[in-house]
Design a protein that fits this description.
It is a single chain. By secondary structure, this protein is of the alpha/beta class. The chain has one domain: TIM Barrel (Alpha-Beta Barrel), CATH 3.20.20. It is about 40% helix and about 15% strand. It has 13 helices and 8 strands. Strands 1-2-3-4-5-6-7-8 form an 8-stranded parallel β-barrel. α1 packs across α11, α7 packs parallel to α11 and α8 packs antiparallel against α9. The longest helix is centred in the middle third of the chain and has 14 residues. The protein is globular. It comes from Tabrizicola soli.
Length: about 300
């Protein structure tokens, strides 16, 4: 039995066609400890959804592998994180890759990771790509930063971020793997539109999987946004926090998604390929929101069986 009382498409709340189409093929992120709380992913996600598994420093790799095996067995595409700065050496990297392969994983998100001091020889996703460890993987994603990244560019520019994006785009033309750029979450459409257009203008060919924070309490979102280094779009939350009538209401990503969806509908070649959700208010809450706002794109497998 499904965890939610999902509406049929005909009974779903009215939603703009661009938004419904924009949400098709969305991906979502979990951690091993949050995955443990989900009785069945088939009850809340469309079959075949890409599920990223975040690898936070200190999480035993055995927990990561077990989570990947379980979610993959339920019928989902699993994409574990490989944070360069927590991998101590190439032998460790090769061991992790081999263990993931053993449970059917063929996709990976490569990123530097939020650790300040590298544990060993790796400090960037580019080093991971260059290692050769992921030869044969069907899909490789890398990180993107629509509002820059002060860890990479302390001067507030995006010079190094853009240089890295150009390198990754060039690498994508040398590999048989499908590649894309999965981004940090943002809260405003226009800065994202400007950034994606700039990527295209500079010849960076990686399709963008735009990061979106799922429904959550405002205080929770502000905490995560500050910790993750979200840039100027944080003002959307700060402005909302000053409105007493909205302070206690949960944030929903409707406005930013509708803005991006409308732009994509009007400009089909626009570089955003998919939406990637960070379920900061809980994966079940996030999945239900997508179902209610995306119609058929969010109907779980158990609801159509």
């Amino acid at each position: 039995m499904a965890l939610f009382n999902f509406r049929r498409k005909d009974d779903a709340p009215a939603t703009g066609q661009p938004l419904e189409g924009f949400l098709k093929g969305y991906s979502i992120e979990v951690m091993p400890r949050t995955a443990e709380k989900v009785e069945s992913f088939r009850d809340i996600l469309p079959l075949g959804t890409r599920v990223y598994i975040a690898h936070i420093d200190g999480t035993p790799v055995e927990e990561m592998i077990a989570t990947a095996k379980r979610i993959g067995a339920e019928g989902f595409d699993v994409m574990p994180h490989f944070p360069a700065r927590i991998i101590k050496d190439k032998a460790t990297l090769l061991d992790w890759v081999a263990r993931y392969r053993d449970v059917g994983v063929e996709q990976a998100l490569l990123l530097a990771g939020g650790v300040t001091t590298p544990a060993g020889e790796f400090s960037t996703s580019m080093q991971l790509l260059d290692s050769g460890a992921f030869t044969g993987f069907k899909r490789l994603h890398v990180a993107g930063h629509p509002e820059g990244n002060k860890d990479i560019d302390p001067d507030g520019s995006d010079k190094m971020v853009m240089e890295a994006a150009r390198w990754k785009s060039a690498f994508s033309e040398r590999t048989d793997a499908q590649m894309a750029m999965a981004t940090q979450f943002c809260f405003e459409a226009q800065p994202v539109i400007d950034w994606v257009n700039r990527l295209q203008a500079e010849g960076i060919k990686l399709p963008v999987h735009i990061g979106i924070a799922g429904p959550a309490k405002l205080q929770t979102l502000i905490k995560f946004a500050i910790a993750c280094g979200v840039g100027p779009s944080l003002r959307v939350l700060q402005k909302r926090a000053m409105d007493v009538t909205k302070l206690l209401l949960p944030y929903e990503p409707t406005e930013v998604l509708e803005g991006l969806a409308a732009h994509k509908a009007a400009n089909p070649s626009f570089g955003i390929e998919q939406v990637h959700f960070f379920p900061l208010g809980g994966i079940k809450t996030n999945a239900q929101w997508v179902t209610e706002n995306g119609g058929a794109s969010g109907v779980p497998a158990s609801a159509t069986a």
